Amino acid sequence: MDILSAIEAHFPNFSKGQKKIANFIIAHTDKAAFMTAARLGSAVGVSESTVVRFAYGLGYSGYPELSAALRQVIRTQLTSVQRMEVTRDRIGSGNILDEVLSGDMEKIKRTLEETSHEDFENAAAAIADARKIYVIGDRSASALARFAHYYLNLMFENVKLVTTTSSSELFEQIMRIGSEDVVIGISFPRYSNMTIQAFSFAARSGAKIVAVTDGPNSPLAKDATYLLSARSDMNSFVDSLVAPLSLLNALLVQVGMLKQDDVVSTFQRLEDIWDEYHVYQKK
């Protein structure tokens, strides 16, 4: 049950002040998600302590947890136009460079603190030992999927980037997935149904699933063998994917270190080819 459903379920038992809070959150979820407890209380005419008790009454450990739940709702449900309106309220028109870059730095820091090192190491080992590696990322996450595929394809012969807008084509591309294979799926709010469907199919096929997503509440997490959590956020209509990219970068380095001898041999050959065909500019 998401927070809005929980509010509706508890509504008959709320006090008069709590009902004011509930009505405001339901009507203005996009604004409430970024308000402090004091500001929300002021907006509806109740005390800050009433807002905090409201959060406790819904089963949250405090107002920050309730606020995080609201942000999760709006990230998965807001349209691009609504995202721009939220950004305008949060940032305004000034200091956009400072605000966005500072926010991205904070997301990388939080990702480092929250990502499971055990899942990270086990995911890298599974990728290094896989018979075949499938990389799936749709919509804005397709840029991350292509990045991961580019480097994995340099390291291994058995890498497939799944790219399609059709469900039938999707399953045609992954129909041979088996227990010796690894699927790397990347998705962030708003989550791609294509990636979710591929994960479900791969899990039933017995493959190892590496989910690069925003946490255990993601629909990708339920089928994941290894969950790699990365902080993301919406900057206007643009998804902030700096932290996921950094996490993927670290994963690729870890895989490369596990297969160091093979990777060195491959890149020595590639350097000869690149040099022969003048792939890169030389002084």
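The above is record 1. Record 2 follows with the same two-line structure.
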Amino acid sequence: MENENFSGTDKLLGEKPVFGLLMKMAVPTMISMFIQSMYNIVDSIFVTRINDSALNAVSLVYPLQNLVLALSVGIGVGLNSCISRALGAKNTKLANAFAMHGVLITFFNAVLFVLMGLFVTEPFLRLFTDDPVVLEYGTTYGKIVLCFAFFSLIYIGIEKLLQATGNTFFPMIMQGVGALVNIVLDPLLIFGVWIFPELGVAGAAIATVIGQGVSCLLAVVYFAFRNGGICLSFKGYKARAKEFWAILAVGIPSSLMIAMPSVLISIMNAILITVSETAVNFYGIYYKLQTLIYVPANGLVQGMRPIVGYNQGAKKYSRMNATVWWSVLVVGAIIFLGTLIFLLFPVQILGLFKASDEMLAIGVPALRIIASGFLVSTLGVILSGAFEAFGMGVRSLLVTLVRQFALIPPLSLILIPVIGLTGAWIAYPVSEVAAAALACAFYFAYLNKLKRANNIPLKKRFSDYGF
């Protein structure tokens, strides 16, 4: 039976004009993703005031924190995809079953990170340093943030449940409140201000988990009263391999995609250091700069995904298709603006980082070459997100592998001996073109399959759905 909450979800995701709905869904997720990325940055800003060893320790723990984010968001994406498609098919029983399977997966992940915090943190850090001070700081920080990662896991799980029903505004508010708590508590707990004890690096970790705990508590309370028609109950629930696999089939590739950039950075640093240390430093700056472009793009993908998944489940394929192409246009506009900035103002951009003459000599042409592939990357980014919404996690992973991993390192190794560092930078636009071609091939093959199976036209005008 349809309840009032589900009816509201149907009117929102299945009937509202596509462009306006996309913006309503996407803007809060863009902001939420930006806030989420700030936790480690804020901790790093404050611990620098302790000493360099403290900053080094927090930086070394970041890959483990990123693993929490990758796994929680990845599984959340799988959950979001499955639930939105079930709601679109008006199968609330299946949507609730997926939600309960998500609860169990979250529980197992929480246990996994407690074990990692207790037994993996110190051995992991010893791979990178033998400094006893860095080890002490890093082990303390890492054990706290990993053992209490369940706050973040639960929050992100609920966030994805709410997003699946079209609710992206309140998850943004919850995330923002938690981040604000972290910012306020960091100096108080690190330096012992007022009635608070001076805890140093441990204080930074405690501030982080308290902030995440506040977001988690707000999410649980909100979901208890405004769940969009999704019911979490063990009454009549049966764990089934089919539902687990449906979530993991999207969630695991999504987790790998989130973790992939960290692997690419490590590989490229190893390649670039054989040519120039300055090239490595530039590459670190470039990676931070490109996130300013791709964070809003990925935020829009998160807003797009439940709309696409819902309309696929509801068999409103033309509306589904229109959402994908509106997303391409919006993200294309964002990325085009970023491309212009990189092409026209590379000297000024690098000047913000007090770039030396040597870095300018390397970085100015590098930014221009890499930026030449930004616009075409729109297709890879959006269509990869669409495949996740369809439940096609492997296709999404393949596109991302081509974009960020499969071609860049080998092309760099081949071209650097021939044309120098320019070869490494050329590898980026080449990879984007290849990924866009693969994504389009996958997507149009899927549309043709739908057209043959349902005998329906898919070529409707964007204006059919209005603004």
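Residues 460-467 have pLDDT under 50 and may be disordered.
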